[in-house]
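ligand=magnesium ion
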Amino acid sequence: MKRVILVQRNDPRSDESVNSSKLSELWELAESAGYQVVDVVTQAKNPIRKYQVGRGKIEEIAVMVQELGCEKIIFNNQLSTTQIYNISETCKCEVIDRFQLILEIFATRATTRRAKLQVELAKLKYELPKARAIVSLLKNEERPGFMGLGGYENSYEQDVKNRIGRIQKELVSARKDSESLRTFRHDHGFSLVALAGYTNAGKSTLFNTLVSESVPVENMLFTTLLPITRSLSIHGRRVLFTDTVGFIEGLPHWLVDAFRSTLDEIFLADLILLVVDASEPPETIRQKLATSHNTLWEQIEGVSIVTVLNKTDLITEEELKERIALVGYLTPNPVAISGKNGTGLTALMDEIYQHLPKWKRDSISLPMSEEGLSVVSWLFDEAVVHKIDYSDQIMVDFEARDEIISKVKAFRKELLQSHDCESI
Ligand SMILES: Nc1nc2c(ncn2[C@@H]2O[C@H](COP(=O)(O)OP(=O)(O)OP(=O)(O)O)[C@@H](O)[C@H]2O)c(=O)[nH]1
Ligand SMILES: [Mg+2]
């Protein structure tokens, strides 16, 4: 395992607890990327632009790198190209920041072509504003090879732009495919429910329990990268559940944009289940909820959100009450569950059912004939049949989308007309 040192310049205006939870998230990210954290350095005062932290700190870190045998330094604060260059020169060690760390995790998890393209796009978007600086640094310092750049040339920036354009084109066509798939699913009477929420909240665990799947679940950030969809019937309604990539605080919008086609699964759903890890301290829950809402806010219009307080098996009744009060101002009726042992799932299903796009109830009589029976079997596929009586005629009491109701009425008319013709 590669040994790393974590560095964070604390925001002096933030609470101690906020700074320490930021640092522990960086630690989790580093472990999720497969690193072994050997030491942690924080500083609140004396930053200088050259290094992000103070000169003395950087010299201290340089000694630690040697003594502890580190291969990488990971900063929680965003670094400029010049800072990365200066720090790596002084410490004689590779330097990355939090965004690059997240990109590394995504890159190791990306197995399909689409995921790889998204990661590549995110990397290029990260590099673009830095491209000019990289080229000029290399020219000044005569140091080819910096940041993985073999040689340098003035066309580097243009080259990055061209590659971005090509990948975006390919992703757009993939997105069109998934949009038509979505329309197809709607036309076939499916409602779409997305499981969204902060990374490691337990989305995949809930997904597995709901639809009896076994997608990977791990106590690690960003286990899920690509969405996966499975169907389930809830009180007769066919619902497609999609498990999605998790949110994390402080992602720049270019990174969110790069994963846009993945996040569309959330933005275009009929209902979003916002999964929250209720076992965490209230302040962490509040922060993570705020991040999730910010990510969703501008993208969803008129889509209902049901907040799901997960991992309640890890807290007491009292603590649960405290959490419900805490999220109350954002969401009136959170549902408390344990995705792991299945408690609260019946209430969750009822809540989902309440939020599905409304279908209408109607009843119809059909001739007792072979054609009539085939319309009935079609209705069983497309609608929820509440009651059916077979006598001289077939009486069906059902619930369905408007299009289905009109279709069944048209079928009935046709059947009666052909029946009249036959009797003449
Ligand atoms: N005790 C308990 N643990 C849970 C519950 N749900 C999930 N976990 C644990 O929480 C960790 C994360 O679960 P995942 O289902 O992978 O979470 P996720 O939201 O899909 O995470 P990412 O895909 O990484 O964003 C795992 O170690 C799960 O076993 C729960 O209801 N109770
Ligand atoms: Mg997951």
